[in-house]
Amino acid sequence: MLSEGGSFMKGMFMGALFCLVLSLLGSFSPSTDSRTEDQHHHHHVQAPSKDELKRLSDSQVQELSNQVRVYCIIMVQPKILVYWATAVDTWSKHCDKAVFYTSESSKALEAVDLDEKDDWARLRKALKHAYENAGDLRWFFVAQPTTFAIIENLKYLVLTKDPSEPFYLGNAMKSGELEYVAYESGIVLSYEALKRLVNVFQDEDKCPERGRALWKLSEDKQLAVCLKYTGVYAENGEDAHGKGLFSSKSVNTLITDSMKDNPNNVVEGCCSDMAVTFSGMSPNQMQVMMFGVYRLRPYGHEFHDSLVFYPPENSDND
């Protein structure tokens, strides 16, 4: 009887394991057959070099700088109110349109109340709202309030890129076979990429709102899976020298790491001078960053930038 019971339990275990494997395989990620013909085959998107800009006429540069306008989609929750308030007071002022999307309303700060507790479902609603209210804005930046962004450098990165092409940029990561852009470093979407994403939201088989996997994917991976079905793939945002522009670390951490790894050239080893995002900073550190990036200037030193990104009309930004 004991051996029969042991065999029965072993059979039950193997059967359950087999079902588990089938479930995982069936719900993990889209097949390669779903790729469209116009997908990007490159995985690195670089900002234009100074030489590239010199080849453009003044009128061309001015036209491009006027066309690159960014809609910032900032996902907030009342439980991190201090970060929310800091984002309002600092870098979000430099977005051409900054909209805060919250899980529940707050009397303290203005936001679009999505009345949704699930992180992925809330992000979907925010992206759909942004798409429907974009007006003539053609670039979208998705961020958390714990991220610090330099929007002018983001505009420079996409300056010569066509938003009618599907771009999905940021700090590109890989998990198994899935390439995705890390949420904590900020995510950049072109109008075409967002349009495809909103369309695939309607297909529950390809892009379910609640997910069917036995484990819960993070929002950035869910986003990558849905975009992959539309032929849009994660690309790493870099400067003209190949340095990454989106970071999930703070400036302090990056400099500390560079002091260990590149003691003879700390600044060069740390980060790009055209960096777009940093993360992992306290609200006070964000205020210090704001001072350093936008207000502190060494007297007598001129920055010979060939173009200027003007602040949004009626903005009180720095």
From TrEMBL:
Entry's Gene Ontology molecular function annotations: glycoprotein-N-acetylgalactosamine 3-beta-galactosyltransferase activity
Keyword Signal attached: yes
Family: Belongs to the glycosyltransferase 31 family. Beta3-Gal-T subfamily.
Secretion signal span: 1-34
Primary localisation category: membrane
GO terms for biological process, alphabetical: protein O-linked glycosylation
Record membrane topology: Single-pass type II membrane protein
Localization, UniProt: Membrane
A cellular component annotation (GO) from this entry: membrane
Keyword Glycoprotein among UniProt keywords: no
Record key words, sorted: Membrane, Signal, Signal-anchor, Transmembrane, Transmembrane helix
Alphabetized Gene3D superfamilies for the sequence: 3.90.550.50
Species whose genome carries this gene: Lates japonicus
Recorded superkingdom: Eukaryota
Region (Disordered) residue spans: 33-53
Protein known as: C1GALT1-specific chaperone 1
Record InterPro entries: C1GALT1/C1GALT1_chp1
